[in-house]
Amino acid sequence: MRGWRARTAGWLATGVGLLGAVGALAQERPLKDQTVTFTQYIETLTRPSTDSTRRLFLEGTRVRFDYGVDKPGMDAWWANGGHALTSGPGLVNNYNVEFDPEFWLVVRDLTFEAGVGFVSCTGLKFLVKDCVFKQGLRFTGNEISFLVFENCRFENGVKFDRNTVADRVEFTNCTFSFAGETETSGFDRTSQTLLVSAKNDPLDLRLTGCRFLAPPAAATLPQYGIGLHNSSYTNLRLQGCTFDAPLDLSQSIVANQFTLQQCTLGQGLYSNGLSINQLNALVDWGNLKDYRLRVRDPQSGRVWDGESAFGTANETQYTLLASCYANFYNTFKSQGNRFAANAAYI
To answer: Quick one: how far is CA 36 from the chain centroid?
Structure first.
């Protein structure tokens, strides 16, 4: 019963944001240190505004589900959609917000014109569907139970760093892109379509049926790619995704299961130093063939793959590329997949 009630509990929880340096720009702090319902929360976030310099701060707010106030209309809204809402432009900044410890927060059909972020918040249990994030979305230093996004568009990147996650972070049938500047009026966002930094707390990350785009003139550049590098994962599952920008998994650790199946790596996979549980990995060689494994010289920016490296790469870069192939060769060999192992050579 609680799970059912929780699924009706949220017109939103994704509409709060990043604490940044905003100088002399106008700031609104309407819910500071208050306890509010979900309805009050969503009404605040979608307050009409055309002011692109607006900075909406939600600081120390406690967001709670009130059955009598929040329940009416939410079941139909979540099940059927059609109750589209739009936040105003500018930035929506949330700091140290405490979300309901029991109920899930659910939102559908919301367009965020503003940059959105969560900093040092607790109790995040979000289900987000059919939403559009026009500016950057960022999670930094939060205590999270789970984040689930379905059929959403992220038009200026997603940044996820230094969070603690009890369950998982999941994106299904979402589109990621980047079309703006990395810094806009104090909002610290990334030029990468997705950037994850999870060094201290291993993350269960699942990407299914997602599309990752980059500006056409910069599709090969790593700063517009998918940055899952230098992080620790319990599970990393990439299934049915199209990566039109570079996918960087270098120097990451996947303790339990690494999955790479039915994906398209249009700009290659950078996997030097990637550590995976080879016996437990699920990898389709078809995702990696045609020289999809690549390395980049950090000084010159030059890229080598299995076709171009021989005779042109220096010894260090050639060795790095050979180690990338060896990682997957040993994975296939340990699983008895001789066909894929025999193909996994530089």
So the answer is: 28
8 Å CB contact between 57 and 18? no
For each of the chain's 346 residues, which pLDDT tens digit applies?
A: 333 333 333 333 333 333 333 344 557 888 899 999 988 888 888 887 778 888 888 999 999 999 888 887 666 677 777 777 888 788 888 999 999 999 988 889 999 998 898 999 999 999 999 999 998 899 999 999 999 999 999 998 899 999 999 999 999 999 999 876 544 444 555 568 899 998 889 999 999 999 999 877 666 777 778 999 999 999 999 999 999 999 999 999 999 999 999 999 999 999 999 999 999 999 999 999 999 999 988 777 788 887 776 666 677 888 889 999 999 999 999 999 999 999 888 7
Closest listed residue to residue 87, CA positions, set 50, 139, 60, 117? 50
CA atoms within 13 A on the CB side of 199: 5
- Residue 298, number of CB atoms within 10 A of its CB: 9
Matching residue, tokens 């201290």: 200
Tokens of 21: 């340096």
- What distance in Å separates the CA atoms of residue 293 and residue 326, rounded to the nearest whole number? 11
Can you give the chain as a three-state secondary structure string? Answer: CHHHHHHCCCCCCCCCCCCCCCCCCCEECCCCCCEEEHHHHHHHHCCCCCCCCCEEEEECCEEECCHHHHCCCHHHHHHHCCCCEEECCCEEEEECCEECCCCCEEEECEEECCEEEEECCECEEEEEECCEECCCEEEECCEEEEEEEECCEECECEEEECCEEEEEEEEECCEECECCCCEECCEECCCCCEEEECCCCCEEEEEECCEECCCHHHCCCHHHCEECCCCEEEEEEEECCEECCCEECCCCEEEEEEEEECCEECCCEECCCCEECHHHCEECHHHCCCCCEEEECCCCCCEEECCCCCCCCCHHHHHHHHHHHHHHHHHHHHCCCHHHHHHCCC
Radius of gyration in angstroms for the set of CA atoms belonging to the chain, rounded to a whole number: 21
Amino acid in the structure at residue 270: Y
